[in-house]
Amino acid sequence: MIIGCGDVARRALPALQSRYSHVYALARSEASASRLRALGVVPIEGDLDQLRTLRGLAGVAHDVLHSAPPPGEGRVDGRTRNLIAGLARTDHLPQRLVYLSTTGVYGDCAGERVPETRPIRPANGRALRRADAEARLRAWGQRSRVAVAVLRVPGIYAADRLPLARLRQGTPAICAEQDSFSNHVHADDLARIVVRALTSARPGRIYNTSDDSALRMGDWFDLVADRFGLPRPRRIPRSQAEAEVSPALLSFMRESRQLVNERLKRELRIRLRYPTVHSGVADAARAAGVAAPVA
Predict the structure, then answer these.
(1) How many CB atoms lie within 10 A of CB 295?
(2) H-type alpha helices, 181-292
(3) Residue 227: per-residue pLDDT
């Protein structure tokens, strides 16, 4: 059962449908239910913001993928709280639940390498809500003997998820000496990780789902710009970015870390199709018919 059937979950659908006899997904509206049926998914009507609508979730599935975003404000993820209550209405609990969280729960790590054992320090509302969801799910899993695994996800990219519009708009980047490390994973690789976690993740385990890139944010923008024949972004001091960059992007620019992904490879035995953003962006450019830049 999928809670939040967004882009990554839809990419995982073919593998999930070959593995499971039925794939269900929560649908907030009839339009959403129709889209799910067209994908071969059985919709279950319900709204995570309204607990009374979630009666249909209880006892439906052995395995659950929770990839729904938290609410847009507050420190608590009430949607995850409601999901747990909806699933717990029966003695027939799921055997396994995989939750897609964010690496933002680590906060700013000053560019250090970050394994899953590093204590979290969420510094904004979005990260606080994700940390709350993680804690609730892991505690419920331990209490109810449901094998809960948390995938901490960095920046997701794909051919249709590149910052091309931002580059065309002239959004600046931070100057090199003040720039932060960013982390990435290709959406197709993340979909494969999700499927593997649903069968092989250890109970209560956390996994960083990043690729092998070690790249600063401005260099990421430069890479995409060069590969798609766009101007590189201007580089400005961090103090100037406060006036020129959106609050959402600025929150990412304020945090610097390099994720360690050895647990992903060792325990889930994931071999990344796109081990670095260089290979993923090059593949996206080829698919778009963009000629490789001349060296």
Answers:
(1) 3
(2) 187-200, 217-227, 238-244, 247-253, 262-267, 277-287
(3) 96
* Cα→Cα distances 144→61, 67, 81, 91, Å: 16, 21, 15, 10
The tens digit of pLDDT for each residue in 86-105 reads 999 998 999 999 999 999 99
CATH topology of domain 2-161+184-212+257-274: Rossmann fold (3.40.50)
| Residue 145, pLDDT score | 96
Quick one: CA dihedral 228, 232, 233, 235, positive or negative?
positive
Q: Is 79 exposed, middle or buried (0-12, 13-18, 19+ CB in 10 A)?
A: buried
Q: How confident is the model at residue 246 (pLDDT cuts 50, 70, 90)?
A: confident
Q: Is the pTM of this model over 0.90?
A: yes
Which amino acid type is present at position 111? G
* Nearest Cα to Cα of residue 163 among 233, 214, 95: 233
Long-range contact list for 17-25, CB < 8 A, 24+ apart? 19/195, 19/199, 20/63, 24/60, 24/61, 25/1
**Position of tokens 């325990």?**
267
Q: What is the CA radius of gyration of the chain?
A: 20
Query: Where residue 291 falls among pLDDT bands split at 50, 70, 90?
Result: confident
What is the rounded average pLDDT for all residues in the chain?
96
161 contact partners, CB below 8 Å, separation of at least 6: 7, 187
Contacts of 199 (CB under 8 A, 6+ apart): 19
Q: Which residues contact 261 (CB under 8 A, 6 or more apart)?
A: 208, 209, 210, 211, 212
Which one, of 35, 42, 39, lies nearest residue 60 by Cα? Answer: 42
Tokens in use for 263? 């647990």
pLDDT in tens, 144-183: 999 999 999 999 999 999 999 999 999 999 999 999 999 9
* Residue 159: both structure tokens together: 């051919």
**Residues 257, 114: Cα–Cα separation, whole Å:** 7
